[in-house]
Automatic annotation (TrEMBL):
Organism: Microbacterium protaetiae
Domain FPG-type: 299-333
Matches recorded under InterPro entries: FPG_cat, FPG_N, H2TH_FPG, Ribosomal_uS13-like_H2TH, Znf_DNA_glyclase/AP_lyase, Znf_FPG/IleRS
PROSITE patterns found in the cross-reference section: FPG_CAT, ZF_FPG_2
Domain of life the protein comes from: Bacteria
Name recorded for this polypeptide: DNA-(apurinic or apyrimidinic site) lyase
Pfam families the UniProt entry points to: Fapy_DNA_glyco, H2TH, zf-FPG_IleRS
Assigned EC number: 4.2.99.18
């Protein structure tokens, strides 16, 4: 399931490519025909992410809400304007493509496709053509067929004169009124990149400290904190040296606040690089390896039976609320 950093990247891409433009909306699959008809021809006004959900505002007081869930993805075609707030891994103004992040002007390939520009969401092979330069014009006239042919089960297609976004396999795709959208937001926990981070920290701390639910489950509860999924959950707990079974109310307040601040930092890194980079203090070559392979960028996630990078104890994997939980039984005792 795409975690918070991916959805923020999607929202920023929509802000760059769709906001301020009239949008043609259709549902090639047919399952969202009524909603697409409501949006068709309207101007996109804003795009924002909160945790794992994206909201696009259209004129006429309508909102598109999308939750990708486990299998959803956005595929982009046409002329793509890159977001100048998303730098490459070394802090320079780079671009990302289907698999790689620019580092020292050379692409670092990620076989998992985690930091996709052309397809963001569930991993899949890209079938679209993308021109990533802000200076390029007229791709629709000069390049492949425009609009691009529909491939597979496209729930929603959003189209401007030069950019196309196809949505496949989402958990939720609906048109909401302003009140309905605010009602959805009210059910979500704080997101470090939305609103006042200090207020978010207070909400998160209060929510955790009043519950006996294990902290390993609370971090995945989107009403407690938005955007954390399986990878970030495991890595945050390890970085805090915190046993995932500790009841929330038994976690010291300073540790809870540390979790929030660490999440805020990791989320920003994820948005900038497109990858869930959770290891600190890496040299240039180690960092390049970590960008290229998720096996080299995480402390405990997906490392069942492998030695802990700190103490050498075998990493444990167990089921927690039907999701895989990875942790070190010694470092996080």
């Amino acid at each position: 399931m795409p975690e918070g950093h991916s959805v923020h990247r999607i929202a920023r891409q929509f802000a760059r490519n769709f906001v301020g433009r009239p949008v043609a909306a259709s549902s090639p699959q047919g399952r969202f025909a009524e909603g697409a008809a409501l949006l068709n021809g309207r101007e996109a006004l804003t795009a924002q992410a909160v945790g794992k959900q994206m909201f696009v505002e259209f004129d006429g007081e309508l909102w598109l809400r999308v939750h990708l869930g486990l299998y959803g993805a956005w595929d982009f075609a046409g002329e793509i304007f890159t977001d100048p707030t998303i730098a490459s891994a070394n802090g320079r103004m780079g671009q990302t493509n289907q698999r790689g992040t620019v580092l020292d002007d050379e692409p670092v390939w990620d076989a998992a496709g985690e930091n996709s520009l052309t397809s963001i969401g569930a991993p899949r092979r890209s079938r679209v053509h993308v021109r990533m330069s802000e200076q390029t014009r007229g791709l629709a006239d000069e390049g492949p067929e425009w609009p691009p042919p529909v491939v597979g089960q496209v729930r929603l297609r959003l189209l401007t004169e030069i950019t196309c976004a196809d949505l496949r396999g989402p958990t939720a795709c609906e048109v909401q009124t302003p009140d309905e959208m605010l009602g959805t937001l009210a059910k979500l926990g704080p997101d470090p990149l939305v609103g006042d981070p200090a207020e978010g920290e207070e909400r998160f701390t209060a929510a955790v400290r009043r519950k006996r639910t294990p902290i390993g489950l609370l971090l995945m509860d989107q009403s407690v904190v938005s955007g954390i999924g399986n990878v970030y959950r495991a890595e945050l707990l390890f970085r805090a040296r915190l046993n995932p079974h500790t009841p929330g109310k038994d976690v010291p307040e300073e540790v809870v606040r540390g979790l929030w601040r660490d999440w805020a930092g990791l989320l920003r890194v994820g948005v900038e690089t497109g990858q869930m980079m959770t290891m600190d203090g890496l040299g240039p070559e180690e960092y390049r390896k970590a960008l290229a392979s998720r096996d080299d960028r995480h402390w405990v996630y997906h490392r069942t039976g492998l030695p802990c990078r700190v103490c050498g104890t075998a990493i444990v994997m167990e089921e927690a609320a039907a999701r895989k939980l990875y942790w070190c039984p010694r470092c996080q005792a």
